[in-house]
Amino acid sequence: MEISVMWLASHHFLPQTKRPSEPTVGLESYVNQVWSSLQKEQVGVIGIYALGGVGKTTLLNQINNKFHDTTHDYRVTWAVASQDRPIEKVQDQIAKRIGLSNEGWESRSRDEKAGDIFNVLCRKKFAVLLDDIWERFDLTGAGVPLPTQQNGSKVIFTTRSRDVCCQMQSNNNIKVECLPPGKALKLFEEKVGSETLQMHPDIRKLATAVVEECAGLPLALITIGRAMASKKTPPE
Question: Which UniProt keywords apply (predicted)?
Answer without folding.
Answer: ATP-binding, Nucleotide-binding, Plant defense
